[in-house]
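Morning, I've got a small favour to ask if you have a moment. I owe you a coffee for this, so here goes:

…
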Amino acid sequence: MLKSKKILVTAGPTYEYLDDIRFIGNKSSGIQGAEIAKRLHELEAHVTLIIGPVNLELPIISKIIKVETAVQMNDAVTKAGPFDIAICAAAVGDWRPKTKAMTKIKKTQSGSPLILELVENPDILKNICISKNRPGLVIGFAAETDNLLANARSKLNEKGCDWIVANRVNAESHNMGGGDNEVTIIKENEEIKFSRQSKKKIARLICEQIVQEISP
């Protein structure tokens, strides 16, 4: 179905380091992106998976690039392209510390709180969408705690991608970091909701939609 198609999948969290041993991160397990990459490989696509720090048995696919930070992921995406399709499932950190300490940050004897200055990370999804080699189909993910559909549609318009896969990641949902998911694919004039099920099944449903989208 997808033979000869070059497809990018990003997955997992990013770690934004305060010093050599501590970082700002999130609960993303990388399972959803890895399952999508695995299914695309089964459909005979040439898949590049760029994945942050995860504790997973990674699928056997065309190419896997392991990264830690958002800057590293952005650089890897740029160097690995161009692609026919891009699926940005990674939970990329929005900010990173302006400077990384050269040694472990210690508590002060006075007990003064640490003042942490943050800067914005590269916007990987938007960079893909505005690149001169923009893929024919660009799919982003929106992990939201509230106003799921409204925030996801806003992201669709802001980033310039073709689809957003929206999922709720508040404490009650257990979607981020868990084995199950429930998502809504948001297109310009359509919304497709998939009920809660395993991330493997969600991956198959998303890939079915991709096949339908690019089929003549």
Q: What stands out?
A: The domain at 6-98+118-214 is CATH 3.40.50.10300 (Rossmann fold). The first helix runs from residue 31 to 42. The chain has one domain: 6-98+118-214. The longest strand covers residues 190-198.
